[in-house]
Amino acid sequence: MATEKNHTNLEAKTLYDKIWDSHVVRSIAGGPDVLYIDRHYIHEVTSPQAFNGLKERGISVFRPGNTLATADHNIPTRDQHLPIRDELSRNQVTRLSENCSKYGIELFGLNHSKNGIVHVIGPELGFTLPGMTIVCGDSHTSTHGAFGTIAFGIGTSEVEMVLAAQCIIQPKSKKMRISINGLPGKGVTSKDIIMYVISEITTGGATGYFVEFSGQAIRSLSMEARMTICNMSIEMGARGGVIAPDETTFNYLRKIPSIRGIDDIEAAIDKWKTLSTDEGAKFDRELVFEASDINPMITYGTNPGMGMSVDEAIPMAEKNSSEASPSFLKSLNYMGFKPGMSLLGHPVDYVFIGSCTNGRIEDFRAFAGIIKGRKKSDNVTALIVPGSKLVEEQMAAEGLIEIYTAAGFEVRQPGCSSCLAMNEDKIPQGKYAVSTSNRNFEGRQGPGSRTMLASPLTAAAAAITGRISDPREFL
């Protein structure tokens, strides 16, 4: 349960203030700011219209070196060496390649050795760095906030704006701090932490805010885990999430072979060490949670806020409500569930591990830790999809693919895959999927599909038992 606190020092600044204020080109009186953007990520879905806009206006990309492109949403995860069968997807990927070539933008396209999901390759290649402002035509751009950046998703017209001017017009958000005290318990991952927070404050609980995550539990997390936290910050309505960089951040960056524009990594780290919230800085709202209250989580409805401990029963109504609303009952009806029902033991048809939420090497290590020496349930179709080619290479080098194969799993090629129904990896109508992605909306994984969000550990437990299971039983 959350508690609120508020102790302020009017001269102190939050991390969000420090980064935002240092990037303001001009403030519009009584209105938004013109904000300079350090890094712009683009992909095949939201960029074609933006490039058309540039063409119609007869202008070019202002700073192509600040933009990085990849193909991820629509690409297949099998036979990537063959032409894409879906005409729309093929055209979008082709158009991205043509536009990047025309405007001098670096592209990690299909079959490139560094291809992958945009929010996976940016950090692993050293393009995401502390103190930056980062945007992309994708809502989960908030992922990059794990490095101490202001990162948020933008619309297609804004993609065009950034391509043309390297700036964007944005109002400054209100500021929230969410602290997680203590350390996570057995089987509790960062996915469980953020799902718990969203279930407590609801999908609208952080609307209008940029959220800084802090506390011992957050500091104890790896960079991969922090990216999961920030990735799902928008699922509670936030504009984005941010975590102050520390030695965990710096050690992650030290391991990257070379970072463009940085010759002396230690000198850069000395500057990044100033990127933290000052003591007593003012937040518009502060919430505190206890890690000891968090268990492995799973969703039971059709938004990420409808989550509970995997061993609990579905509540009788929404949080802070005495009776179930029509929308609550509609959501349960779509899922084939009822209030008061336990999900433990419920049959599962599909398991998906991947996406920009849980498609990193740490996630596949965790998944392998449970399935090693066991077999995939015969009634489960598993979609094992690395977030990038580099993750795929790591999986092979560490013997994870051998573990998966021995257990009866097939590892696919990188891509957004079954996170969203924009490619071939769709969940069939009426089927139940335990997914490590970030959204469980109606039809998100395919028309009529029924999605239950969970961590890689909970997904692994479901994959070997063929039903919803508590991962703690396998640790």
Describe this structure in words.
- The strands form five sheets. Strands 1-13-10-11-12 form a five-stranded mixed β-sheet. It has a five-stranded parallel β-sheet with strand order 6-5-4-7-8.
- The protein has helices at 15-22, 48-57, 87-103, 118-124, 156-165, 190-201, 216-219, 223-231, 247-254, 265-272, 326-335, 355-358, 361-371, 389-397, 400-406, 456-465; strands spanning 3-4, 24-27, 33-36, 39-42, 67-70, 106-108, 133-136, 150-153, 167-170, 174-181, 209-214, 240-242, 285-290, 297-299, 307-309, 350-353, 381-384, 432-435, 450-453.
- It folds into two domains: 15-285, Aconitase, domain 3; 313-474, 2-Layer Sandwich (Aconitase, domain 3).
- The protein is built from 16 helices and 19 strands.
- It is globular, with a radius of gyration of 22 Å.
- α6 (190-201) packs parallel to α8.
- The protein has 475 residues and is of the alpha/beta class.
